[in-house]
Amino acid sequence: MADVNRGNRPLSPHLQVYKLPLAAITSIMTRITGHALVAGVVLLAWWLVAAVSGPGAFAAADWVVRSWLGFLILTASTWALWFHALAGIRHLFYDAGMGLEIHEAEKASWAIIIGSVALTLLSLIIFFIS
To answer: Which CA distances in Å does 126 have to 65, 68, 81, 120?
Structure first.
């Protein structure tokens, strides 16, 4: 291994060449949504603590929760909760040895994506109707 030219060799597999399977992307998103749920929990915890702290603190927290930013955070947290829950159900099937074939895993991934969006929209509809 005396004089090997290593500067012109491509990296393999590289992200520009290798495309992650949908099941891998949804698996990564499950971890991301698990961490992202913290934002919604912090916002709701702040709102609840402000509610028992006094009218001034509650007015400030309530203004943030009712603002467009609060709505965006709570809506994203609702989606993340549904996505994370559905992915957890898929993981239970994986643990039982079911759905491990490539085409089954892709169908389950699409079910998680579509189901999480549909359940988020249903949650928003139920919230705004009642």
So the answer is: 18, 19, 16, 10
Confidence check: pLDDT of 5 > 80: no
Exposed / middle / buried, residue 86 (Cβ in 10 Å: 0-12, 13-18, 19+): buried
The domain made up of 22-129 is a member of CATH 3.90.1170.20: no
Other Cβ atoms within 10 Å of 73 Cβ, number: 19
Domain segments of the chain: what residues? 22-129
Which ranges constitute the DSSP H helices of the chain?
22-53, 55-66, 68-95, 102-129
- Class of residue 60 by CB neighbours under 10 A (exposed 0-12, middle 13-18, buried 19+): middle
Q: Rounded to whole angstroms, how far apart are CA atoms 8 and 80? A: 43
Distance CA 117, CA 1 (A): 55
- Tens digit of pLDDT for each residue in 54-72? 999 999 999 999 999 999 9
